[in-house]
Amino acid sequence: MFQISSARPERTQECILTAPLGIPRLVSALGDAREPVRNEALILLIALTPASEEFQKLVAFENAFELIFTLIEAEGALRHGSEVVEDCLSLLANLLRLNISNQSYFREMGCVKRLAKLLTDANQEQESEEPTPQWALAHRDKNLWGLLVIIQLFLIKGGINTPANQMAFWNNGVMEQVLNTAFGQRFNVNVTSKVGDIEQYRGTTADQFRHWRPVPT
């Protein structure tokens, strides 16, 4: 299916849209217990969602955000997940990029808390006597970078949704965790650079971030 969609994406999209329960069945496959079916659905959705805002909306309203976050957590989240988590983040970015409706729906569904939870987990020091392999650290940093890219999608300068997104991120602890990432000094240069990109955005929330300091416990 992925090969077909790559060759004829518009035709593939049309077939799914016109098929009875086409989109609901495709999205629900993200929760399929059979990994090959689940992974094929994930790759196909990534291929079909970048261009069509309407298709993005239809996918999102079939509970896609919940299924994506559930899959990310099941696959080890940011610290331990590999290719499947990377693919989930790619799909999430496709659904949210410049899509005002989906960003609003994302907030309304309480998904901002899920972003904060993933960041909190990634920022935690691993308590283990065994050193973490370099390949695992590389996957973690790549996943973390992908999540920071998604956060940046909500903070477009001058965007209609940006003030509401800023407030939601502040209230749910997302930006606190972004700052923890910056101060952690455990991540590669791509991650810390992306944190700097996010911090550049101006506004009430951004001003609050600059004066934020960790509270001693």
UniProtKB/TrEMBL annotation:
Mention one GO biological process in which this protein takes part, according to its record.
endoplasmic reticulum to Golgi vesicle-mediated transport
Q: Which SUPFAM superfamilies match?
A: ARM repeat (SSF48371)
Query: Which domain of life, per UniProt?
Result: Eukaryota
Q: Which GO CC annotations does the UniProt entry carry?
A: endoplasmic reticulum; ER to Golgi transport vesicle membrane; Golgi stack
Return the PANTHER family for the record. GENERAL VESICULAR TRANSPORT FACTOR P115
Instruction: Report what the protein is called.
Output: Ataxin-10 domain-containing protein
**Source organism:** Aspergillus ibericus CBS 121593
